[in-house]
Design goal:
It is built from twelve helices and six strands. Helix 2 runs antiparallel to helix 4, helix 8 (272-289) runs parallel beside helix 11 (345-364) and helix 9 packs parallel to helix 11. The chain has a six-stranded antiparallel β-sheet with strand order 1-2-3-4-5-6. The protein has 393 residues and is of the alpha+beta class. InterPro entries: LptG/LptF_permease.
Length: 393
Amino acid sequence: MLLLRTIDRHLFFSTAKMVGSLVLLALCVLLLERSLRIIEITSASPAPLRDATRLMLNLIPHYLGLAFPAALMIGTIARMSSLSRLEQITALLSTGYSLVRIARPFLVLALLLAIGSLIVEGYLQPLARYSYREAAHLAKQETVVGAFQRGEFVSFGDRTSFVRNVGENGEIEDVFIYERTSDGGVRVLTAPAGLISLDEETRQTGFRLARGVSVEASREGGVYERVDFDRLATRTDREIEMFRSRGNDERELTMGELLRGEAVEALPEEERDDAAAAFHFRAGRAAAILFFPLLAVPLGLVSNRSNQSGGVALGLLYLVVIQKLFEAGQGAAAAGAIPPWAGAWPVVLLVAVTSGALFWRSAYTLAPPPMETLTRGMTLPKLRLPFGRMRSA
């Protein structure tokens, strides 16, 4: 009995390490693909590294939802294939250790990933999606500091400003400010140095100028006042537009909010079917993960010392088909063509039936491994040439 528990722990933790590595690899690849878009968004930001990091972190829950099923499928198939090639599966079966018992650690891992997927896609992903949109909105705005860093004239209200250089900590050089006064006159501020900052409460950009000159001219154009100052503080009237509140569409609502219905009622009437379909879509994807080991375990079986492969490719193809079926069902449910539950749960039933049938065939019949049967069926027949073999000279 202790041996059986030891084997279970070995299979569970070795597969979990492989699945975790695959999840990290998938995150790196997917985030790298999105990095070009993020660089484009944050290029005009005064703090591009901070904004890019925030956007990247908010993308992680979205990509985790995509990585969990693929990592589980690939990890299970690869682990079973390794055990088969080393004849460890044969040794276990010869001692009465059934395929059902071998699959138990993989099913436990699938249960944990299904719960994780429900948490990630049901709760973390909607909140992260809103945070990503908020961060992208703020980063895309043409902030004053960002424009100054590019050496541009910046106009806001009745004021136009120019700064030759902006340092890392907001230090500015060669400042020029032109503004119209309330009586129709003009005021010009110049300073060789100063500091630019953003007020977090008022969202306004302020200048602190040093050793500068202020010149005011009347409406008629005559100079009537000049002031040399050591320190002068001024600020713009331009505020950064704040982002909207969360819940603009169903993808920003958690499963709890979708279930309660209060946030759904705040949506436009034409989007309420989308909300119901989104709830079943998230729950159905998490439920489908539970049955993936029943498909992956047979696909990983190969004959002893066999070179047969392709289980991973077939498993990934299966995942793509299932994902497209989920998306088609969600689209039909959102359009009102079918009930909301019918867009997801028939797909879960299809996954359960196909995976269960393949596992039953491998566990309770004497049929050869599925990949070996498939490979034999795809083998081209040998052709016999009518003119026989060619003789060598």
